[in-house]
Amino acid sequence: xxxxxxxxxxxxxxxxxxxxxxxxxxxxxxxxxxxxxxxxxxxxxxxxxxxxxxxxxxxxxxxxxxxxxxxxxxxxxxxxxxxxxxxxxxxxxxxxxxxxxxxxxxxxxxxxxxxxxxxxxxxxxxxxxxxxxxxxxxxxxxxxxxxxxxxxxxxxxxxxxxxxxxxxxxxxxxxxxxxxxxxxxxxxxxxxxxxxxxxxxxxxxxxxxxxxxxxx
Length: 216
Description:
The chain has helices at 3-12, 15-27, 34-60, 64-110, 115-122, 129-142, 147-152, 161-175, 180-215. It is mainly α.
């Protein structure tokens, strides 16, 4: 089926819904027009729901419209939640390796390497999605974009509040003429400390839950 049909259907869907899917698609780096993607999703879901509802009606005499609306809503909402969870998982992975990445970039900067080169050299395979974004940022800087603008593009592709705030602090530090190497090391240490505190709090909460359970 022609993709123009999908994009036409996508234009009929409320903009708020399309934008919700667009955001998750950006985080997952799905390079497909959001209108076409959502249009295909709604059309495919429509056909699938009609098939399920018809079978339920024929074999179990369940109301066709009730079955149709149930499966249609389940398919659309389920697909969105799947995209959301995938984006969250990607963000959590990046948060886990972020201190190591910052430390590596800081070491390269302190060694006298230019910022764009430091980002490129620090883009290691084990950093997963962050490797792609570091390379992308380095390429943008070489292309003439400022370091701050290139850095601000990273959180747009990775769903993480921690990464977003970290990038903002780095960009602010560069703009104010701070020593980027020292700043990166401090941020890496702060993130590790925050992670350690979160793990400690989580362990304490689990212990309290067990105590309450046994007491009850």
